[in-house]
Design a protein that fits this description.
Strand content: 35-45%
Shape: elongated
CATH class: Alpha Beta
Structural class: alpha+beta
Length: about 110
């Protein structure tokens, strides 16, 4: 079992909700949590400051590339955030639920 947490952001809560719903509906994620955040970043040689919505996506390592592809396909940003973090520990029951909830490796 190789669970991962994928981090992404969206410019609006509505966009983040559409991405979250697609990932869960398509069996690519067991759970997606949305949180409002403030982002500071450099873009086109300017410092930007924008409200965004953070997506915490729980899935399995074998689906991480597909999740990233779906985020890029559904996203309004030219370069959407897709950061994949291994989950190295946690509640065995919860991690087992993640594995049982999403698509199997064979689909």
């Amino acid at each position: 079992m190789n669970p991962v947490l994928i981090l992404s952001t969206a410019s609006t809560h509505d966009e983040a909700s559409r991405i979250a719903e697609a990932l869960v509906t398509e069996g690519l994620a067991a759970c997606v949590q949305l949180s409002p955040i403030e982002s500071w970043y450099r873009w086109d040689d300017r410092i930007e400051h924008q409200p965004e919505t953070r997506l915490h996506i729980k899935t399995m390592a074998h689906l991480a590339d597909q999740v990233g592809q779906r985020i890029r396909a559904l996203h309004s940003y030219a370069v959407p955030e897709v950061v994949i973090l291994p989950i190295t520990g946690g509640s065995a029951d919860y991690l087992g639920w993640i594995a049982a909830t999403i698509r199997s490796e064979t689909g």
